[in-house]
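chain below, 263 aa
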Amino acid sequence: MTQNFTQVEHDGLSFRCCVDRAGDSAPWIVFSNSMMTDLTIWDAQADTLRGRFNILRYDQRGHGGTTPPSGPCDFDQLGGDLLALLDHFGIASCTFVGLSMGTPTGLYLAINHPERVTRLVFSDGQSATAKNGAATWQARIDSARAEGMEAVAKDTMSRWFSEASQRAGKTEKPYAAAAATSLDGYIACATALQNYDFNAGLPGIQVPTLLMAGANDGNMPVSMQEIRKAIPGAVMHVIPDAGHIPNHEQPEIFNARLLEFLG
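prediction:
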């Protein structure tokens, strides 16, 4: 087993990636992060799967160690980034795991390049911009411009995590990643989240699909049930005592569900 951090050039940007190889015959699993997190948000999952899978984690554009774009982006670009990384690392097909923004990123791939995915795992993400979502994201963009990313990070932690989790120190690493997110990267990806819709493609997804949502993540468990109904054979689990980042807040429960799905 070797672990490799590397930068990959694509579309004028440099993408930070982490690859853990289990061997040429091992299947690939690819993790895609949410807004205001980076590839380390998947540490608990990588630790559990290391040695069984070849693992690719990467920072979406403008996050972590990946270059901020010079302007707004959309999910054709974010999904195209994912496809380019699969090509770069010679990944013919993979199990894809997406958190929040990683969900529409993965839906782009699954709907437009179905041969590249063997299984899908989506956590706390939506298949289309929610009603009033464009206005919500615009307010957050305006706040980020006016107050800076540290203020946005503090507000985000209060929405993502329960008070008990905050007291237990579970927000320390996510807060650091959120506060370090570039303003340009935040605005670019928030703009993508203002206007996307993959609903029409959901019934055509033919690979095993697992959906998970934190029980305390607002309306997310309800909206993800609608995705479950639209994707043939999809299964869903609600993660108790967790908000928007259940893989970090309740990693043991999240990992148990993930391992059960992976077989």
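The chain has one domain: 2-262. The chain has a mean pLDDT of 97.
thats it, cya
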